[in-house]
Write a structure and sequence with these properties.
The chain has two domains: 230 residues, FAD/NAD(P)-binding domain (3-Layer(bba) Sandwich); 120 residues, 2-Layer Sandwich (D-Amino Acid Oxidase, Chain A, domain 2), CATH 3.30.9.10. 38% of the residues lie in helices and 28% in strands. A hairpin with a 2-residue loop joins β18 and β19. α11 packs across α12. The relative contact order is 0.17. The protein binds flavin-adenine dinucleotide and 3,4-dihydroxybenzoic acid. 3,4-dihydroxybenzoic acid binds next to loops.
Amino acid sequence: MRTQVGIVGAGPAGLLLAQLLHRAGIDSVVLEARSRSHIEGRIRAGLLEQGSVDTLVEAGVGARLMREGLAHDGLDLRFDGRSHRIDLHALTGRRVTIYGQQEAVKDMVAARLETGRPLHFEVEDVALHDIATDHPQITWSQDGVTREVHCDVIAGCDGFHGPSRAAMPPDILRVYERVYPFAWLGILAEAPPVSPELIYARHADGFALATMRSSQLSRLYLQCASDEDPALWPDARLWEALRTRLGAVNEGNILQKGVTAMRSFVAEPMRHGRLFLAGDAAHIVPPTGAKGMNLAVADVRVLAAALTGFFHRGETALMDRYSEICLKRIWKVQRFSWWMTALLHRFSDADPFEHRVQVAELDYLVHSEAARTALAEQYVGLPYDI
Ligand code: FAD
Ligand code: DHB
């Protein structure tokens, strides 16, 4: 088998890249370890920057997103028992959209299957070979048979635990990492959202976030211990903690419960030879700033443009700058996600001084339009060219 781009992973990064390449007339093979129903049911991120929405629409996979996505013009910051609205649209002229990651994945899987180009689910033993040469290959096994595809380029879109980053020589990779001493317990519940906009709450018991998937589905998160056992959170305890931290909550049948670890992580560079990493394969942000999926989209925009220049015109300049261009944005977004996390969580080792500084920063945000604007312009998404 031969293709121009071998794509490992059918998450948002791999699927969007496949779609953008298809629109540019570039062939690819997508390999995914899990089943279609697994990736379409996996509940993860839910908030899209305006630039991500525009990118999905331009890529031809935004029709349902435009119909069903919930556009939000603001958010609430809650602390000391009071909520304060940040008017994102008034401050930036831009808005964000709530649309479940798995819905975007469903749309992109459908678009991919419609193209007739290959997307293989439930592949095993994926391995990357000869990535430093101009004829890399990927091998995998499926139904007990070993298969191989010869590529011009490999895109490692296989998330944090995938084989692509591990295929880069360890001596060229620099890794920057911070693991936070807490996690989020997230639930999806059959209950109308308690407020039409998101609520980010700082409380003495810990952070809480009220978000949603529709007018009838609430998505709620609570700061918990990093090794938290969800079984220790029976529904009654969960609702009580949410009510305490958010001020109010609408209860309903809990459809899903899970713990998300909190980590900041960057691997540099994002390219070695003909292997390019995109999305969570290269970086992880703590979810407080809602940036994981948006960063994956931003990487893929750059990668698709670089590969289009290469395959259509033989240009390598943008490929050579891929890592540098992406990392400029990634580090700004890392900083923002780390800052939002520090602003809103309870750090068990914080002394009274740090606690006072945290409250002062929240109070400053409420009283300074300049501070709110800085938050808002990063939350709605920095422009792609800075
Ligand atoms: P992924 O979505 O991880 O896709 C990678 C794909 O590669 C997966 O489908 C995986 O199955 C596949 N793969 C892995 N190994 C192999 C292999 N060996 N061979 C073939 N395929 C392979 N972000 C937020 O902003 N808010 C949130 O609330 C939020 N919650 C999250 C909850 C969880 C549990 C996780 C893991 C992430 C969450 N994120 C959240 C982050 C966000 O979902 C990611 O940033 C986003 O999915 C990145 O997309 P990606 O395509 O780079 O990686
Ligand atoms: C969602 C998740 C986030 O981490 C966030 O900051 C905002 C929204 C969500 O799942 O909707």
